[in-house]
Structures are given as structure tokens and as C-alpha cells.
Amino acid sequence: MKHLPPRRAASGAVLAMALLAPWAVPAQAQSASPSAAAAAAAPGPQQFTLANGMTLIVQPDRRSPTAVQMVWVRVGSIDEVDGTSGVAHALEHMMFKGTKDIKPGEFSRRVAALGGQENAFTTRDYTGYYQQIPVGSLEQVMKLESDRFANNQWPDDEFKREIEVVKEERRLRTEDQPRALLGEQQNAAVFTASPYHRPVVGWMSDLDAMTPEDARAFFKQWYVPANAVLVVAGDVDVAQVRAMAEKYYGRIPSRAVPARKPRIEPPQRGIRRIELKAPAEQAYVSLAYRVPQLANIDDVNSDAWVLVVLSAVLDGYSGARLDRALTQGPDRVADSAGAYSGFVGRGPQLFVLDGVPAAGKSAEVVEAALRAQVVRIAKEGVGEAELARVKTQWVASETYKRDSVMAQARELGSNWIQGLPLDASERIVARLQSVTAAQVQAVAAKYFGDDQLTVATLRPLPPESKPRGRGFAAPAGEMR
């Protein structure tokens, strides 16, 4: 399972190029690289519906004789029910454990033998599987992937072994990581009706009680052709890929996608605070505000657009407002500080401010400093130069992400999951560029009151004298 950092986990991956990439792109990067320019000149993605209702998206990119195949299923922890939290992720693990014709572990060995690499990931909103291989091996991995999508099966003993791997993953990535554990508890406090209050990896008690039949039932319920998209990007011919997709995926029997009942999050009516005491070197504070999500890409008046720009003004580049005000100079109060705004998702979204106090400073001081920066924008506004810098980075990121076939495939798949069109990324960047300084100032004054806020604080304890014992030794091999 691929985990997002705790602070970023509130959003889907759909804005990877527009929201996350700017953090890694130099501000001065304004011209396209030759390879990126070649990608921009390539044919755009094409979308089809297979005979059984499964979606196919093909993105040709002729610069390298490689291809990426990704299957995205519109199912994640948001679709689980109480008592079986973590089953979407557990099933992702079990998808590598065989079919009628493929023995456990054989899938990965075959992909490796073809010179490829593969993995999978589970989030709140979706589950994804991918392989990156020489283009001549594309048909072979399409045959393998379609087989496990349709015919995943394994003996109970395989599940009993693998669920222990999942439990150890939870221990290593959540229970032994104070900030991750705090983030899990903060989500549980923020969300009441939304399934987002449950962790993707699941509660340990649910993992302890999970059965092979829980995973099989989840597979049967949600791994339906009409609930999935096949994305192929790389040095491919669209017509050939479509023919192979119909051959291997189009023959999977169609079934109805289960009805999803709405689970509307009730309004928050007062500040919420939680504290976690755990062995840690430093304190940490996270402020999560309820904010609107983008329900429709054509809704140009949504404040969700502007909140994204506000987060970038605060933390969109090295030396942005939070960095300058909290972490630099003789009066600095934090070793690090950040901002992030959720944008789209199948559940409600958050705007998060967070920080790590500097030596001699408290979490309360950092909390006050974070809030003061938003108040300052609400009172004084932002400069045009700040907006221009942020917007330049978005344009650069849109260009440079095209250097990666994997990034193109991820973007297309995540956009489909959220119901966005093929040209969503270009439209998103164009809309973000039109956000004005006055709009940024207005949202800074609108959404950051106490009634929409949940504060989570890590109180560090001295390190434990000896490591906590384990009831299980994880088997060797990669943890997905």
C-alpha cells in the first residue's frame, strides 16, 4: 500500500500535478524541456467504454519504448462499513495471491521476468494496480491483470498469513509513528458521519477479527467492470490497445455497480481539540478546518479553487509565507510549517495548517502563529507578485509532469475516479490562474473560525527504554 504523508492524506491524488508538483518545481522553471515539448505535441488521451461497461483510457507517448498499465477501481475505505475497516487495503494485498491459473506470488515474478515493475495502492477513494513494462510485454501484463480482476482466489491460509503482514504494516506506519497516529485520531475527531473517520489501513481490532470471507465479499461486491478504469500510457497504438482491452478485459462478465447511500457529514458547531502523548523528539500541532470541496469542475464560483491558491500562498514554494514568518530569523517559532487544502474527493475536504515547534517553543505558540498568518491575509490581502509566483509554478508543473508516463497515467486514472473529464488538468490550472488577490483575501476571512476547526496536538514523552514487543515477525518481502 502506498501511503500519503499524514498532512496530505486529506485529498485525493487528482491534483498531483497542480497541487503537489509545485513543491518540487523550481520557481524559475518557465520553459518546457525538449522531451516535455515532444509530449505536449503528442496526441491527447482517448476514452472508450468496453462491451461490459469498463472504461478504457489510452494516452500515446512515443518518446520511450515503454508502457504503463493501470487499473483503478472506484472503491476504497470510504466504501467500508464499521467492523470491517481496512478490508479494501487487505483485499489489495490479496490480489497478489493468485487466481485459478496463477499461484500466490507468481504475478509479481512474471512481471519481473518481463523486465517490469509493479505495485498497488489503496486510499480512501480508490484502489489502484500498475505495471511499467517494455511496450512489447504489454499484452502479457494485460492478460495477467485482467485475470486477477476477474478471477482473484486464494486459500484461507494465504489470507491468515497476509493479514498479519497488514497488521505489522499498521504497527510500523501508524502505531510506531506519533504524527501518523495523531493524524488518525484527528480524522476520527473531525468526521462523524463520513467514512473518512476510519483509517485506510483499518483499526487493529477490525484487522484482528477480519475473515477471508470479508475480503472475498468485498471483491465480489466492488470489483465490477463498470466500477473500474483501465489506463494505458506510453509507446502504444490506440487501436491496438483497444483491441487487446476488449480481448482481455471486455470479456469479463458485467454486473451492476452496488448502490451507494449518501453519508452526509453534519455541520460542526464548535472547536474540537485532541491531544496525544507519545514518545517523540518534538511536539507537533495540526489545525484542520472544514472547507468546501469542488463538486463540479464547471463551477467557477466555488471557493474550493481559491482555497487551493491560499494554501499555495502560505506554503507553495520555498520561502513562502509560513516558511518566512515561522521558521526563519532570530524570532522563529517553528522548525517547519505547512498548509494544504483538500480540493476534490468522494468525501468532505479539509484545509490543514501544521507545524513543529522550534526548541523552547510550545505547540500553542505555533498554533497561534499559524492562525495569525491567515488572519493577516484576511486583513491585508496578498500581493500580485505572490500570486504570479504560484501560478508560474503551476504552469511549470503541468509541463514537467509530462516527462513521466507514470505521472500521466496516474493523473488520468485519478481524474476518472473523481468523475472529471480527460482535459481536467489543463482546465484546473487555467481556472487556478484566474483566481484574484481579492478572492484569496475573502476566503481567508470566511473559513477559519473556531466552529470549523479541529486542533490535534502531539505532546512528546521521553523515548521508551526498550522497544515495544511484537506479537508477530513480519515475513520478508515488500509491504504494499
TrEMBL record:
Residues 1-29 form the signal peptide. SUPFAM superfamilies: LuxS/MPP-like metallohydrolase. Residues 460-480 are annotated as: Disordered. Keywords: Hydrolase, Protease, Signal. Gene3D superfamilies: Metalloenzyme, LuxS/M16 peptidase-like. Residues 210-393 form the Peptidase M16 C-terminal domain. The keyword Protease applies. GO terms for molecular function: metal ion binding; peptidase activity. Residues 63-200 form the Peptidase M16 N-terminal domain. Coiled coil: none annotated. Its EC number is 3.4.24.-. Pfam families: Peptidase_M16 (PF00675), Peptidase_M16_C (PF05193). It is an enzyme of class 3 (hydrolase). GO terms for biological process: proteolysis. PANTHER family: METALLOPROTEASE (PTHR11851), MITOCHONDRIAL-PROCESSING PEPTIDASE SUBUNIT ALPHA (PTHR11851:SF49). Belongs to the peptidase M16 family. This is Zinc protease. It comes from Variovorax guangxiensis.
